[in-house]
Specification:
The complex is a heterodimer of chains A (57) and B (457).
Chain A (H helix, E strand, L loop, with lengths): L13 H25 L10 H8 L1
Chain B lengths: L5 E2 L9 E6 L2 E7 L3 H9 L2 H7 L6 E4 L9 E7 L13 H20 L2 E3 L7 E4 L2 E4 L5 E3 L9 H18 L3 H7 L6 H7 L8 H15 L14 H16 L13 H4 L4 H17 L4 E5 L15 E6 L2 H14 L4 E5 L25 E6 L3 H7 L4 H11 E8 L5 H7 L11 H11 E8 L6 E7 L1
Helix pairs in contact in B: 3-4, 3-8, 6-7, 13-15
Classes of the chains: A mainly alpha (57), B alpha/beta (457).
């Protein structure tokens, strides 16, 4: 495994990914909460043909 | 067995394996070092799934070790590619599709317990109309808690240039040529307008990254926080949704709508299309190079089973052509942004990693329609140089001569001295007949332009 780390592990920018992950976590949390509230008021439009195909293939 | 193998000059960075040529075919050597990952790649079903999704260049395992190396594990024979192109020749939409394909590849890999370790456009090629990964050894086993090792590379090679082009209109192929290894976040951050700082996703992936990467590594806080698989999925999704929303800003260039808006009449265009189409039908060919293709009107007339490389130096035209072939599924056409007077150079280590454009391009038929006056008059290239050039790239040449009294040539000469005494059809024919024999000569009914079909001597 170690030999395969021929890329500088810093290339992964660990710190930035930790920060982004944390921020995105918060955004997704609020978004899903908002969508949950919204779902009571808004009828979800039916999926288009393309979306249906994407989810099945 | 012990003959030296012809290792591809761009295939030396990854110790997991390399690409080589053997008896005219390209193969991939897989080292025992990569065994664990390769087995997982096959056994988890990831390889099959990616092939079905048309995200991976198909390959088969071959039993022979052509290399004689002792750390041999597998030999792979990928689908053979006739032509390789680089990101500095691609349109905006092609780079965008390659970026989205890279994100999908990483996402599918994660679902099977693997992750993409390289995220560079040089691992992606447009094959049969789809952006596919050509580097089979780009996956490694994923360990929970690890970050995405190719994240920064992805941002530098795909996200940053796409964002800069979207917000400033700078040609994307020029950015890729200037930063072949990827545009650093700090550069993108300076080039992007202030308003992008107010967009949370762009702020995080570009501006914040620029701030953090600017600090000394030792000064960066050590963090013990692990990054979960869910976190990586969210990062991938945020990159995807950001990239999907990007587009090439509408620009009015000299060349888009050349055929629809110029003084050149509709009759002329349909006449030329009919002529070129019938000329092409008479010829036997498997490859075509359309130089100055504009939006591909004539590339689209070529046989669907012939490989067509359609080039123009106008990135907006090539972007439109890319969108057209994607929509119409004309999978035989590769639209590339090429400036004939500055074609892509050879680059990389020892100038061998990435080949120059014309060393990759030898074709049966070359189309040079409404092109010669731009090279001869706007760029002062002589007929002798042009004839030698065309003879070096093709066997059959379909070339349109645009005389001096053509409105387009007059336009070119409006603001400059006419130093082109020898620019006439007699001189043109005299020079071209030294390298080519004439097969056909057709004069246009609606303009004074003449189509010539030449066979290389």
């Amino acid at each position: 495994m170690m030999q395969l780390l021929y890329l500088d592990p810093g290339s992964g920018s660990y710190l930035i990914q930790v920060i982004i992950a944390a921020v995105l976590g918060v955004i997704f949390y609020f978004k899903s909460g908002w969508n949950w509230i919204k779902s009571f008021f808004v009828k979800t439009p039916p999926k288009t043909e393309e979306e249906k195909n994407e989810s099945t293939d | 067995m012990n003959q030296p193998i012809n290792q591809h000059p761009a295939s030396f960075r990854d110790p997991s394996g390399f690409v080589y040529e053997h008896e005219g075919k390209v193969y991939r050597f897989v080292s025992t070092l990569y065994k664990e990952h390769y087995d997982k790649f096959q056994q988890s079903g990831l390889a099959d799934e990616l092939r079905k999704k048309q995200l991976l260049l198909p390959f088969t395992e071959v039993a022979d070790n052509h290399t004689g190396k002792t750390d041999w594990y597998k030999t792979l024979e990928p689908q053979q590619l006739q032509f390789i192109s680089y990101a500095w020749e691609w349109s905006f939409e092609q780079l965008k599709d390659a970026a989205l394909a890279t994100l999908s590849l990483c996402n599918y890999a994660l679902q099977k317990g693997m992750i993409l370790k390289d995220a560079t456009p040089s691992n992606i090629q447009l094959v049969d109309g789809k952006c596919k990964l050509i580097d089979t050894l780009s996956f490694e086993t994923y360990t929970e808690g690890q970050p995405w090792i190719a994240y920064r590379q992805f941002c530098e090679c795909f996200l940053n240039p796409l964002l800069v082009t979207h917000y400033t209109g700078v040609d994307i192929h020029r950015l890729e040529l200037a930063y072949p290894d990827g545009m650093p976040a700090a550069v993108a951050s300076t080039l992007l307008p202030f308003k992008t700082k107010l967009k949370p996703i762009i702020y995080l992936h570009v501006h914040l990254q620029a701030k953090i990467s600017g600090k000394q590594r030792s000064a960066q806080k050590q963090t013990s926080r692990k990054i979960s698989k869910k976190n990586i999925e969210q990062i991938l999704e945020s990159l995807r949704s950001c990239i999907v929303s990007l587009s090439l800003p509408e620009q009015k260039t000299t060349w888009n709508n050349y055929y629809t808006e110029t003084i050149l009449s509709n009759e002329y265009l349909s006449e030329k299309k009919a002529l070129v189409s019938s000329l092409l039908q008479e010829l036997n060919y498997t490859s075509v190079l359309d130089l100055g293709a504009n939006e591909g009107e004539f590339s689209l007339l070529c046989k669907p089973d012939a490989k067509v490389i359609a080039t123009d130096f106008d990135s907006s035209c090539i972007n439109n052509l890319y969108k057209k072939i994607r929509q119409e599924k004309r999978t035989n056409i590769s639209p590339l942004v090429i400036d004939l007077t500055y074609p892509s150079p050879s680059m990389g280590w020892m100038n061998e990693e990435r080949k120059a454009f014309f060393s990759r391009t030898k074709v049966d038929v070359c189309l040079a329609l409404a092109l010669i006056h731009h090279l001869a008059i706007a760029k002062n290239i002589s007929f002798e140089q042009l004839a030698a050039f065309f003879a070096s790239v093709c066997n059959t040449l379909i070339i349109e001569f645009v005389p001096k009294d053509d409105p387009k040539v007059k336009e070119l000469l409006t603001w400059r001295e006419d130093i082109f005494e020898g620019y006439n059809v007699e001189e043109f024919e005299k020079v071209f007949q030294e390298k080519f024999s004439l097969l056909n000569k057709i004069e246009s009914v609606y303009t004074k332009r003449i189509l010539f079909v030449y066979q290389k001597k």
